[in-house]
Structure formats: C-alpha cells, structure tokens
Amino acid sequence: MLRNASHRPPAGRATSQAARRAVRRAARKAIRRDVRRAVRRRGPRRIACLAALLSLAAACDSADPAARRAEVAGPAGEPIVIGMDEDSSGPGASYGVPAGRTVRDAVRDINRRGGVLGRPLKLVVENDASDPTKTPSVVRKLLGEGAKAVILSTGGGSVLQAKPVLQGARVPAFAPVAISEGAVTPPNADYVFMLGNPISDFTKVYCAAMKQAGYRRLGVMTDLSPTIVALNRILLPKLRACVDVVGVEQAELGSSDVTPQVARLKRHDPDAVFVSSVGGIYEILIQNKLAEQMPGLARYSLASIGNQPGFWKVANPRALDGLAFMGALVPGNPRAEALRGFLTRERGGRFEMTAYDAQAWDSVQLIKTAIERARSLDGNRLKQELEKLRGYRPAFGQSRLTLSFAPGKHIGADGLCGLALVEFGRGNRPGGMQHGYQPQCG
C-alpha cells in the first residue's frame, strides 16, 4: 500500500539547526542592544537608523516559523524542472486555470518541505489556448526548457496531440483534467497517465441512474469544441446503447442564443436532457434556456459546470436547480478535506475547491513519488516507477478509492467510486449527492 504524505501542514526538514539558531539569537541580541543605545544617545545618525533597526529586529523575532525553516533547511542544488501546458486563454481555461493554480500551490508546498531528493522543483508553464494544433510546439518548448515530467492542464484534444511528442522524448506526463480514454490508449500512449475515471465510466453511471429513474428518451445538447467533439465519439454511442437518444443539437461555443436548438429538442418530448460541454458561459446559456422552456425536466451534465463556481452566479435564479453532474469530490474523504483546508489557508478568504484542484494536486504528488523512488530523472525510469504504483489514496473520489498503475493500465482509478452524481440545490450551488443511483467501490 502506498502511504500518502500529501496533506500534512508544510514543514522544514527535521534536521538539527542548533548552530544557526544560536547565530540568529546572537544577531537579535546585538540589534536590541544597538536600539537601546540609539534611544539613550539620541544622536542624529543613530536616530536616523532607529526605524531600520527596529524593522530588522521585528523581522528576526516575528517572521513566520515555516518561512524561517524553509530559509534554513530549504532545498538546494540544481532545480528539477516540471513543465505544464496550462490552457489559460481558450475555452478550456475554465478547467485549465484552476488545475494550474493548484499545481503551483503543490510545487511551492513541496519546496517548503525540502524539495525532492533535496532539490527544489521548478515549474515552467506554457499555454496552448485550447488549440490542439499548438500543443506539439508548446510541449516541445517545455521539453526544451528541461522539463523531466509534464502536466497537461488542458483539454483532451490537446492531450492527443501531445502524446507523440512525449513518446518521442520519453518524458512522462499526467493529464489531470482529461477524461477521454484516447489520452492513454495506443498509439503513443506509453508516457501519458490519467488519474480519474474515463468517459466510458461516466456513461455507466449515467445509464444506471437513468434506468433507475425510468428515463427512456434522452435529448442531447452539445458544443463543437475539439475536446467535446472527441469525447462525444465515445459518449454518444454508449448512451444510445442504454437509452433512446431522440435528438442531438449542437452549437458553437461563441453562440449567443440557443433558443432554436432547445425548441427542437422540446418537440422530441424527451424524459431528460444531457448537456455535453466544456461548460463556461455557453453551458449557462443552455441551462438558462432549458429551465425556461422545459421547467421541471430532468437534466444531466458533464463534470465541467459543477467544477466552475465562477459561473454559477451568472445563471438565472434557480436555473441550475436539480441539475445533476458527474462529481469527484465526495463527502467523507478525509484527504479532500485536508486539501481543502490547506488551499483555503494558502489563498485566504472563501475558497471553492473542485475536482480539478484535487486531481492536479495528486498529479504533482505522484510525480514526486516516482522521482524519489527512481532516484533518477530518466524518463523511462520514471515511467516504470509510475507503473509500479499501487494503492495510492487520492484527494478525490470516495474515501475507499485507490489509484494504481501498471503497464497497459495508465488510468489510475480502481473502480467507479472515483465518481459521484451531485445535484445542484437552491441558489445555483451544488446541494449534495443525488438521490437514487450512486456508483460504489467494489
């Protein structure tokens, strides 16, 4: 069983620093002595320096203990470079940016703890802007900057284009927000890893839930982003195998009105509507119109909108009420709660954690573990160590969920319990687990 150490409070290495502490105490004593003399003598130059001396004394006395430990015992030596393709300006920014921010938090935390093998991690970041044609050059640039592992905080279409570059360079990568099996299936799949359940598992859960609820006729609304087009090739055939898909309507992400599409779906008289989208303002537009034109109709959605709290307040009042989406943060997972507490302390104020945060965090921890076990930065050695990992307990999914990898198994989730159907309640906020079917660990 792989033991997690991912959610302990940041701390320096537990090595003896008695000599350095003695030096700091002596320095503080000397500063206080000079301050007292300046006050007694009141010489012009002494008084001029008083404020600076007081500031220095305060810094020595009241600096954050964790910061002092990091200064004394922080990692040294040549940095280990981790690359990140962060979709920060395209449609995928709604999930790429939150995941990317948590990757940064995880790297800082690891460095505060002493780094990896005593060396600091250095994160280098590029942006493919949700354009898969840009992804190969973005990944090559990261590799050119010395990246020994890569985090693909971008959509599935971009991950597909990254695969041959990573395969040729023999550099392992995690795709924390990807849900398409294509990311980890041949060709060129030896060096890409996913954490969460893939879209085929999503459809098992959706189908079981709709069967239990007695829904037989399904309407589908979808966008035309590269990520969703790729996902729909898997999603739609599997939905059709369990329910009668009576109509599929689609629109570009930049659409400002989906009234005609929703009106056509309504004429098909579905029992429920499924929205397949990268989320963002486009999905809010759809959900507003569905709530207006088909009030009370059961609605399902991909994970995106449930992990985008910045967009919930844009929806019309109660437009999201009753909407069920595929979640991965499940009440009762102590690692999720520990991570939530850590990120809240890091960022301050009110913080809405999402599955993107949890999977990004776990990606960094798994890369760290592979480097420590391999004691090497050779890409093939790192891949082999990742393929040996068993029983890692992540910050997402149900508390019993484990992640394991092996040659030919680059999707970490061991079973369906990395997923949960979550329902929006009043106020356009997730209100808890949906009543009815829920996937089980098993």
Short synopsis of the structure:
The protein is of the alpha/beta class.
Q: Which descriptor suits the 3D outline?
A: globular
Q: Give the integer mean of the pLDDT values.
A: 87
Structurally, how many domains make up the residues? 3
Q: What is the number of helices?
A: 14
Strand content: 5-15%
Oligomerization state: single chain
Order of helices and strands: HHHEHEHEHEEHEHEHEHEHEHHHEE
* Largest sheet features: 7 strands, mixed
**What is the CATH superfamily of the largest domain?**
Response regulator
Total beta strands:
12
Considering DSSP H and I runs of 4 or more, what fraction of the residues is helical? Answer: 40-55%
CATH T-level topology of the largest domain: Rossmann fold
The CATH C-level class name of the largest domain: Alpha Beta
CATH architectural designation of the largest domain = 3-Layer(aba) Sandwich
Q: Rg, please?
A: 25 Å
SSE class:
alpha/beta
pLDDT below 50 for ≥5 consecutive residues: which ranges? 5-20, 34-72
Features:
442 residues; Leu-bd; signal; alpha/beta; amino-acid transport; Leu_Ile_Val-bd; Rossmann fold; 12 strands; seven-stranded mixed sheet; Peripla_BP_I; five-stranded parallel sheet
Tell me what you see in this structure.
The protein is globular, with a radius of gyration of 25 Å. The protein has 14 helices and twelve strands. The protein has three domains: 56 residues; 198 residues, Response regulator (Rossmann fold); 143 residues, 3-Layer(aba) Sandwich (Rossmann fold). The longest helix is centred in the first third of the chain and has 24 residues. With 442 residues, it is α/β, with parallel strands linked by helices. Helix 7 crosses helix 8 and helix 9 packs across helix 10. It comes from Actinomadura yumaensis. Belongs to the leucine-binding protein family.
